[in-house]
Amino acid sequence: MTTVEAWFNATIVGLTETDEGQCVLEEFVNDKRQRERQTLIQSRRASERHQRDMQQYFTRGENLERMIGLACCQQWREREEVVIVEPSCGDGRVLSALVRHCASDERGREKRVRVKVIGCELDSSMAVIARERLRESLRECEGEDKCSGISGEVYMGDYLHTTRESLSLLPSLSSSSASVVCPCVRVIVIGNPPYSLIKRGTDAGNVDVVEEREVDLPLQFLLHSATDLQANKIVLLLPDRCGTQTFISAVRERLTEEQWKLEVNEIADSSFDLGERVIKQPTVIQVWNRL
Question: Where are the beta strands (DSSP E) in the chain?
Answer without folding.
Answer: 58-59, 81-86, 114-121, 150-156, 186-191, 197-203, 210-216, 233-239, 260-266, 271-274, 277-280, 283-290
